[in-house]
Amino acid sequence: MDTTRADEDLLSGRYKDRQEWPDNYHYKDIKGARYAQVMRESGGLPALALEIGVGRGGVAVAVSRQGPSVIGVELSPDILKKAQAYARNTKVKLLQGSGFALPIRSGSLPLVYASQVLHLFDSPSRRAVMDEAFRVLSPGGRFMFDMKNIPPHIMGYLSSSPEKRKRNYPPESELRSQLKDAGFSHVIIKPGVMPLFGWTNVPGLLRPFTHTSFYVATRG
Ligand SMILES: C[S@@+](CC[C@H](N)C(=O)[O-])C[C@H]1O[C@@H](n2cnc3c(N)ncnc32)[C@H](O)[C@@H]1O
User: Fold this and answer.
1) Where are the domains of the chain?
2) Which residues surround ligand 1 with Cβ inside 6 Å?
3) pLDDT tens across 32-53, in order?
4) What fold does the segment set 3-219 form as a domain?
5) Which of 61, 75, 96 to mutate to test the pocket of ligand 1 (most atoms within 8 A of CB)?
6) CB 167 within 8 A of CB 135
């Protein structure tokens, strides 16, 4: 079994168990607003965006409120049902599928993003998602994702096994070099949000203390 297939099997089991977790749409609203803000700051809001691993749809709905239509792709059919309920009467369309093999034509999208997804994968599978995003983007298209910062997650970081740390907190240098190897030509990194204060527009110097850092990579 290849790595991406094994990851799909593992993750569909892991997230099935989490279906009953309480919804946190308040945080997703803040985070989606920040995604839209970073899109605006890094080249403008696209008419259409695709979210890999849309989950229950909170971020996608918040992004769509700012203008873009969103295609949300989700691996788990059970989680997709929750997203379908939440995204009813919005500009979010949902598809079941995998971020390793998106059901989308090559070179057809201006922007792909993955909120709270890339930390789920070991390095080869993370790279496979980057390759797939690159495939479906049109020239000049952008791939955005966010990765956890260590300071706000210090307890989780210290209590993680070395393998989990490598997966959850890959160094910026590794992510930059993976993006370059996947073909992306330009990468910028922006602060994420401080959910406790509801802050979406955090100054750059405070980036390590935001919940996650936002990466924007451009397909040349
Ligand atoms: C932590 S949740 C994030 C959900 C959403 N993006 C958000 O920020 O609220 C990760 C989601 O990715 C989905 N997922 C995991 N592996 C995936 C894959 N290979 N393709 C598509 N979705 C995947 C999981 O089922 C889960 O719903």
Assistant:
1) 3-219
2) 8, 11, 15, 28, 52-55, 58-59, 73-76, 79, 98-100, 115-117, 120
3) 999 999 999 999 999 999 999 9
4) Rossmann fold (3.40.50)
5) 75
6) no
